[in-house]
Design brief:
about 20% helix, 1 helix, about 110 residues, single chain, six-stranded antiparallel sheet, alpha+beta
Length: about 110
């Protein structure tokens, strides 16, 4: 899916696809190429939760990617199950992009 990320204080959005709902939030910190911190939620549900992406150089030219989620509420099981699938797709997409220079084909 297509994701648009604004500057700190601005909105970001991961547009809906046939497989995933739209996810939106506010950019709290954007420090390329090492850190991105955003709030997230769905259009009909305010985004109080946060996710942080950290990218750190590692040995032999590799990079360590850390994703941290901060939750302010208990999410229903269907949402957490979808999140697991989403994180798997996101990480697979990053790995493919790094290895081949090309993104995964849709529906990712």
């Amino acid at each position: 899916g297509k994701t648009e990320i604004g500057e700190p204080g601005e909105r970001w959005v991961r547009h809906a696809t046939d497989k995933w709902p739209a996810i939106t939030g506010i950019v709290l910190a954007k420090e390329p190429p090492n850190r991105l911190l955003v709030t997230w939620g769905f259009d009909d549900d305010p985004p109080p939760d946060r996710v942080e992406f950290l990218i750190e150089p590692s040995a032999n030219g590799t990079a360590r990617v850390t994703i941290r989620e901060y939750h302010s509420r208990q999410w229903p099981e269907d949402i957490t199950d979808s999140a697991v699938q989403g994180w798997n797709a996101l990480l697979a997409g990053l790995k493919t992009l790094i290895e081949t220079g090309k993104p995964l084909p849709s529906p990712f």
